[in-house]
Amino acid sequence: MDDIRKIILSTCTIEKEVQTLDGRWYQMMAIPYVKQHDNQNDGVIITFNDITELKKVQNKLSRINADHDTFIYAVSHDLRGPLANLFIIISMLKETLKSYSDIPFYEDTKELIMLIDKSTTNLNTIINELSDLAKIEGDIDLKEKVNVEELFEEVELSMKEKLLSSKAQINYDLREPVIEFSKKNLRSILFNILSNAIKYSSSDRTPEIWITTEKLGDYTLLSIQDNGIGISEDQQKNIFGAFRRAHNHVEGTGIGLYLVKKTVTNAGGDIELESEVDKGSTFKVYFRNDPEEGYVK
């Protein structure tokens, strides 16, 4: 009854899912009935669409996803103990080897230990990203008004070594100073895309990155453009898939951009890629502005 009164008074349209006592589900739509001769709201038209089978499929998919996420989380969690032991053993090997610098095959042994250390570190990165993958579906983070300039300063500081070693140049044009999003998730998105811009830079030129923000209707657009090696058209369609990689000449897990897309789309936004081989790539991230709910002041 409250919905009907609301429609009559405001001439709005209401859609909602309702469940009947027999367990069936319906998509209800209520719209105002307007008289043609005086253009006055004289009642409400209510329609019901049976969506019971759709709800069954949705519930089944939710259970499958939940089992999938639980399995990934359990596996990644159980691997952390043995992995921590590996790090300890590697550290002990490094310290022990220092006392035997004059033995035959010292350099070969040192190189092997470094390779083991590197592989173990890569495995740790994969486990961390698998944990993120398992948590992200159920992760609900409150939006907040994030000062973009301050956050970029934080991200640049955390990437200082990469930026210095690559001599990368970052140019800003922040026409929209605030992005409404979870700050920790936004930091992760920026770090991931900027890291890729440096990782996949061209050896023929100094890495250069252009970052812009602007308001587009109900969205805030963040564009990150680079002059790297680019991504072929065939690879672009799968670039946001899990464990998908466009280039294999540098190390990576293929999870990063998948996590970025899931984080953005779970919050009602979207991400697009424009790229040309040997020219560079542009990632366009659309953050939905919804000031009425889910905000931290």
TrEMBL record:
Coiled-coil intervals, chain numbering: none
The record's annotation in InterPro entries points to: HATPase_C_sf, HATPase_dom, His_kinase_dom, HisK_dim/P_dom, HisK_dim/P_sf, PAS-assoc_C, Sensor_HK_Regulatory, Sig_transdc_His_kin-like_C
- Say if the entry is tagged with keyword Phosphoprotein: yes
Q: Which SMART domains match?
A: HATPase_c (SM00387), HisKA (SM00388)
Q: Which reaction does it catalyse?
A: ATP + protein L-histidine = ADP + protein N-phospho-L-histidine
- Report the SUPFAM superfamilies cross-referenced here: ATPase domain of HSP90 chaperone/DNA topoisomerase II/histidine kinase, Homodimeric domain of signal transducing histidine kinase
Q: What is this protein called?
A: histidine kinase
Q: Which organism is it from?
A: Algoriphagus boritolerans DSM 17298 = JCM 18970
